[in-house]
Amino acid sequence: MKIAVIHGANLRLLGSREPEVYGSDTLDDINGHLAGLASELGVELETYQSNHEGQILDFVAEAAARVDGFLINPGAFTHTSIALLDAFLGVQRPFVEVHLSNTARREEFRRHSYLSGAAEGVVFGFGVHSYLLGLRGLVARLTAK
Ligand code: DQA
Q1: pTM of the full predicted structure?
Q2: Catalytic pick from 99, 112, 129, 131?
Q3: pLDDT band at 4 (very low <50, low <70, confident <90, very high)
Q4: Domains along the chain with CATH numbers
Q5: How distant, in Å, are the alpha carbons of 20, 49, 104, 129, 143 from that of 46?
Q6: Distance of CA 76 from the midpoint of ligand 1 (Å)
Q7: Residues with CB under 6 A from ligand 1
């Protein structure tokens, strides 16, 4: 089983970016934790980060041919991108949406996600554990299919 992990806008800044909101883990730390869990679960991961919406759309379209599902933290594209929703609807691969912060108790504009309605599941508010729980959920869902 192979899963693509996508980190969207501004997530390469983790570690120094608003640590009181996003914690002190860097993106490499998060990818390291994910790699550890992936080997425990016996799945292969491919990770990708971009600040560019169009590049993420292209990645989803290309990676869909070689992966079974996606784990994505779209960053702010969560709240703005109908195009990203359409990309996932177009490739018909299951995806799980994750967020480090609890978006439900932040600004109003973070409460709406264009993706959640099409996701297999959504995990938010647990820092790096959102990613790890999301990966576990996605693998369980794919295994059951
Ligand atoms: C985020 C939440 C988004 O609202 C924000 O724009 C991000 C990070 C999170 O992981 O908590 O960039 O996706």
Answers
A1: 0.97
A2: 99
A3: very high
A4: 1-24+45-67+94-104+119-125 (3.40.50.9100)
A5: 28, 10, 29, 18, 18
A6: 6
A7: 9-10, 73, 75-76, 78, 99-101, 103, 110
